[in-house]
UniProtKB/TrEMBL annotation:
<dbReference type="InterPro" id="IPR013108">
    <property type="entry name" value="Amidohydro_3"/>
</dbReference>
<dbReference type="InterPro" id="IPR050378">
    <property type="entry name" value="Metallo-dep_Hydrolases_sf"/>
</dbReference>
<dbReference type="InterPro" id="IPR011059">
    <property type="entry name" value="Metal-dep_hydrolase_composite"/>
</dbReference>
<dbReference type="InterPro" id="IPR032466">
    <property type="entry name" value="Metal_Hydrolase"/>
</dbReference>
<feature type="domain" description="Amidohydrolase 3">
    <location>
        <begin position="247"/>
        <end position="471"/>
    </location>
</feature>
<protein>
    <submittedName>
        <fullName>N-acyl-D-aspartate/D-glutamate deacylase</fullName>
    </submittedName>
</protein>
<dbReference type="GO" id="GO:0016810">
    <property type="term" value="F:hydrolase activity, acting on carbon-nitrogen (but not peptide) bonds"/>
</dbReference>
<dbReference type="Pfam" id="PF07969">
    <property type="entry name" value="Amidohydro_3"/>
</dbReference>
Length: 491
């Protein structure tokens, strides 16, 4: 099967190319890129004149494990959606479940530090889905430090998950902020030994909690320097808040000294988590300069009135999803901080996409358009289109070539050493996977809002996953489930 994309502006961040060209797809891979390509017999020719053609976006931080969530991300230009910050356990079951149900997008998972600790410290079921089962996050039982025997047990569990194909280790340190820093160092040593990255939601900053065992961003820098591990700092904007300039300075010094630290951000001033999370505690909110009114219950839209109400909600249902505002995008100073985060050299875009919940508690739907009443964070539907709107269309901070570096090429390169399959993603070299996005450069924009979070982005005209059309002329193809697993290979 051949498809020829004719007459577009082709962006290949792998080759540094930005210019008019055709792209030939053959049997799920890129067969040729160049001007005036011949049309193979029987090929479908798609006129993409006036459109931008590039490698599909690689999202390192997506918690959507459903057809519904993948469809929203497809309309946002994503072709590969990976759950690496939290991960799932057991990883073999996560891959098997996705393959059995089918996925529109490529998928993959890290070894879940949180689930491994919960399994050992709580005696939780082996199917400890920390990433999608938020209730466990608010349980203080797994947040404590481990005994030597417990540490050995859950490190062994992580090692087994890596051997089973996990794409590194996802570390939700921000949900166990008082745990012994020596444990994090042990995880970094394991990652370095196995040749896989870590993906960390860091613990509190010292400015927020002077009693923290170690500053969250300093911890990741020190561990990378001491062990040589590749360490990825997740959603640096949400964990840093108004201290972002200090944190970026810390990371810059580490990178300049040769440490293997990478950074991601999303273009929103509010995060999403479980209301029982440690950092939603009223005292910790005060340390951040925030209050209960910065917390919004996702299912009901309730903006929490006071500390008494927040404590009630945390007690009644610690796993209830909520939004937490850490920056006010309407304020010029806060908007500028968010912009500086996205502009930080080589920071990649990652969504932290959350599942869609409907009033009946379901997080799966095969309907399209999605049924009304779904609640989630708008970043599930709009992260990449919003980043392009802010950084390319409105501010011209990024060129289109730079945008595809941040959204496609650099994320894939973070995975090269642990997942050979990643080397065929994020660029348009001959033989690369035919994961492509074709977008309208004048119209690409997010449409999802905090009050209407499931509105698909606008401007993605075509999307191909492994050469199969998932979005065609702006319309989602509901019968397309071509997603393939991206798995690690233990060395």
């Amino acid at each position: 099967m051949h498809t020829l994309l004719r007459g577009g502006r082709v962006i290949d961040p792998g080759a540094g190319f930005d210019g008019p060209a055709d792209v030939l797809i053959s049997d799920g891979t890129i067969a040729a890129v160049g001007a005036g390509l011949d049309v193979p017999a029987g090929a479908e020719v798609v006129d993409v004149t006036g459109l931008v053609v590039g490698p599909g976006f690689v999202d390192l931080h997506s918690h959507v494990h459903s057809i519904a969530g993948h469809r929203l991300q497809a309309m946002d230009g994503v072709t590969t959606a990976l759950d690496l910050e939290a991960g799932l356990m057991p990883v073999e079951k996560a891959y098997a479940d996705a393959a059995r149900a089918g996925r529109p997008l490529n998928y993959g998972f890290s070894a879940s530090w949180g689930a491994a600790r919960a399994q050992v410290l709580l005696g939780a079921t082996a199917d400890a889905r920390i990433g999608s089962g938020l209730a466990v996050l608010g349980n203080p039982g797994w947040q404590r430090s481990s005994s030597p025997a417990e540490l050995t047990a859950w490190l062994s569990a992580l090692e087994n998950e890596i051997a089973a194909g996990a794409l590194g280790i996802g570390v939700l340190m921000g949900y166990a902020p008082a745990s012994d820093p020596a444990e994090f160092l042990a995880v970094a040593r394991l990652a370095a030994k196995a040749g896989v990255p870590t993906y960390t939601h860091v613990r509190e900053l010292v400015e927020v909690d002077p009693a923290t065992p170690v500053d969250g961003s300093e911890e990741i820098v020190r561990a990378a320097a001491e062990t040589g591990a590749a360490m990825h700092h997740c959603h640096v904007n949400s964990t840093s808040g108004r201290h972002i300039d200090r944190v970026l300075g810390t990371l810059d010094r580490a990178q300049r000294s040769g440490s293997r630290v990478t950074v991601e951000a999303y273009p929103y001033g509010a995060g999403s988590t479980a209301i029982g999370a440690a950092f939603i505690d009223p005292e910790r909110l005060r340390m951040k300069g925030l209050g209960p009114s910065n917390v919004i219950v996702l299912e009901t839209g309730e903006r929490v009135a006071d500390e008494k109400r927040l404590l009630q909600l945390r007690q009644a249902d610690p796993g209830a999803p909520c939004l937490m505002e850490f920056l006010d995008e309407r304020q010029a100073a806060d908007h500028a901080m968010l912009h500086r985060t996205l502009a930080y050299p080589d920071a990649v875009v990652a969504s932290d996409a959350m599942p869609v919940f409907w009033p009946d508690g379901n997080s799966e739907s095969t309907e399209w358009p999605l049924p009304p009443g779904g609640s989630t964070h708008p970043r599930a539907a709009g992260t990449f289109a919003k980043a392009l709107r802010l950084m390319v269309r409105e501010s011209t901070t990024w060129t289109w070539l730079e945008a595809f570096r941040r959204c496609s090429y650099l994320p894939a390169r973070i995975l090269d050493d642990c997942a050979p399959g990643a080397r065929a993603k994020g660029h348009l070299g001959v033989g690369a996977d035919a994961d492509l996005v074709v977008l309208d450069p004048e119209r690409i924009t997010d449409a999802a809002t905090y009050t209407d979070p499931t509105r698909p982005s606008v401007g993605v005209r075509h999307l191909y996953v492994a050469g199969t059309s998932v979005v065609r002329h702006g319309e989602l193809q509901t019968d397309a489930l071509p997603g393939q697993p991206l798995r690690g290979e233990a060395r």
